[in-house]
């Protein structure tokens, strides 16, 4: 969302900009995360102006009224939770930096809602999706790949093989890919480093891209990034999302899916294959095990198998 002159004149706007700068520098938040926090808190500032209260002086009761208005406007409960989470972070930072002694968000409760199961891609659909930029068409006939095709195929394989986020694919450096050890180093949210195993299929496709396509895309230029654009720059997250939408269209799949569905499918496949939850947490780079636990609800057949093997009455 573009900032308007009206936004820049809002009471508390300078606080929001300083808060967002701190998110990026102190917490290592991605530009996407910073933009989301800014949009949510600016929406709150607009409400505060309409309610004739200064953000530094808002009471708990007034904040509850703001959340109630979001609910009355039929915002999704997950969206209201996200807004409140942004405000909690904002007011904690405001208190820590001495901008206010007031924290109306610390005891506010977001509306409870059903936790949605993550969307996953079936194995058959995943095979189709991973092959749309490959060296064979849907009928198994050879097709000529462009350097961009090789790169896009390698990105899709990387996302699925490693359960990586789009931002992690975009920021992947060539030095972090170890084909001989079949592993990749990625930096996730808040610059947390982790090592993720790489499948042999993904390694083969990524290595071919590195050997054949990457030099053509770079030309005379140099880059530390593993995935590079047609102009020799690193591939941006937005470019990866657009490529993914194109891949869905070519595969005849639901274009409402996001690249994150590949990450969900990665986690679900691991659990169905017998991986323990803690290992999946480490590979996904989740800070909390509770975030990973949602995937246990995706595979009831797996739970039945475990019950049959482990329960004495099964």
Topology (elements, then pairings):
Layout: H1 5-8, H2 13-26, H3 31-50, H4 60-72, H5 77-96, H6 123-131, H7 147-162, H8 166-170, E1 177-178, E2 183-187, E3 193-197, H9 200-218, H10 237-251, H11 260-272, H12 277-284, H13 289-292, H14 300-310
Antiparallel strand pairs: 1-2, 2-3
**Biggest sheet statistics:** 3 strands, antiparallel
- The rough form would be described as globular
Helix content: 40-55%
Main sheet: strand order: 1-2-3
Whole-number mean pLDDT: 84
Distance between the termini: 55 Å
Report Rg: 23 Å
Provide a count of the helices: 14
The assigned structural class equals mainly alpha
How many strand elements? 3
In words, what does this structure look like?
The protein contains 14 helices and three strands. With 314 residues, the protein is mainly alpha-helical. The protein has a three-stranded antiparallel sheet. Helix 2 (13-26) runs antiparallel to helix 3 (31-50). The protein starts with a helix and ends with a helix.
Characteristics of this structure?
314 residues, 3 strands, 54% helix, mainly alpha, three-stranded antiparallel sheet
